[in-house]
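Hi P.,

Sorry for the delay on this. The queue was packed all week, but I finally got your sequence through. Input first:
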Amino acid sequence: MDYSHETLNNFASKQWEKTLAFLQGHYSLSHPDCEDVFQEAFITLHKNIIDGKLVNMTASLSTYFNSICRNKAFELLRKSGKTINIIDEYPDATKDEFENERIDRLLALEDDDEQVERRKSAIVLQIVKDLPEPCESLLWGFYRDGFSMKTLASMLNYSSESSVKVTKHRCCDKFKKRYKEIVGKILD
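Then the structure:
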């Protein structure tokens, strides 16, 4: 996606009203607080774009930005000593949706909390190491080393790229399940 200056300005203009309504509706933030959260979130978004963190993003830019705003709102509420009942934020959500949202929150934390980043990296490293073969080799090859499906098929003796894709999908499911278990314990 094109992240030019003009594109980001258009995005910010379109996102502002939506973000303002979200922050005021969910967190009862004042207009100036909403402006602060929006600006801090936009700075974080811009930094993440420059750092190349959005290259393999699967969510829409709007969804990603909204998660940054949500985290910035939580930071602001924590600093001011206010609390929010997170479960009330999702009254119709199933337990699975709630757990996924909690995991998304942890994954979307910004790099300025170095301890959280180290912890997330350690969790990911340990989970991948503990996965049975071929998952460990496949996930490292694809995500860390950037090998194509064709290359992985050749390296790992698969009959086709589609076989690698199916196996990778299954491995990712195993990873996500384990990640949810571990993060759930951390967030409880």
